[in-house]
């Protein structure tokens, strides 16, 4: 796992989990939009970075659509599995500059920061079980 991802994970440990599954879904959709937007932005500057952004955005979209949370379409992947897959996706995103051999400073920074943000989101998200319990307590 890249260093910035590890740092994000360590920093987020003492912070209480406060992102609901619904908010996680909305942030995931924004992240897909960001990846696809940077695909267009990188296309004239660095084709390898554009392809990397397209791959990462497509992977995140596929994971999102298959998850059983408020933003998902099918219930093929549990939310817990989704969060574990997010950590793997974050590592892949952060290592894209080395994988596709582009050393553009802006592209490298984007992928490293995006990988760390995906890790941070995973660390700050409530599990669906604890979210359900919190909802019942408030409703009763």
Structure description:
The longest helix has 23 residues, at 21-43. 74% of the residues lie in helices and 0% in strands. It has one domain (19-133). Helix 1 packs parallel to helix 6, helix 3 runs antiparallel to helix 4 and helix 4 runs antiparallel to helix 6 (105-124). The chain has 7 helices and no strands. It starts with a helix and ends with a helix. It is globular. It is an all-alpha fold and 140 residues long.
Main sheet attributes: strand count, strand direction, barrel closure = none
Helix fraction? over 70%
Estimate what percentage of residues fall within beta strands. under 5%
Order of helices and strands: HHHHHHH
Per the principal axes of the C-alpha atoms, what is the gross shape? Answer: globular
Our count of domains comes out at 1
User: How confident is the prediction overall: mean pLDDT?
Assistant: 81
The count of helical stretches stands at: 7
- Give the CA-CA distance, first to last residue: 43 Å
Low-confidence stretches: 130-136
CA-atom Rg in angstroms: 16 Å
Query: How many strand elements?
Result: 0
Q: Helix/strand-derived class? A: mainly alpha
């Amino acid at each position: 796992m890249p260093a910035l991802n590890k740092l994000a994970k360590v920093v987020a440990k003492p912070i209480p989990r406060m992102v609901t599954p619904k908010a996680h879904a909305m942030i995931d959709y924004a992240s897909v939009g960001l990846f696809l937007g940077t695909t267009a932005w990188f296309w004239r500057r660095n084709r390898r970075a554009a392809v990397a952004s397209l791959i990462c955005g497509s992977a995140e979209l596929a994971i999102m659509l298959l998850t059983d949370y408020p933003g998902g379409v099918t219930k093929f992947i549990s939310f817990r599995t989704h969060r574990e897959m997010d950590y793997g996706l974050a590592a892949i995103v952060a290592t894209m500059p080395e994988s596709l051999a582009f050393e553009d400073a802006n592209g490298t920074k984007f992928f490293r920061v995006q990988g760390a943000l995906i890790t941070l989101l995973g660390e700050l998200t409530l599990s669906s079980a604890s979210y359900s319990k919190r909802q019942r307590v408030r409703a009763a």
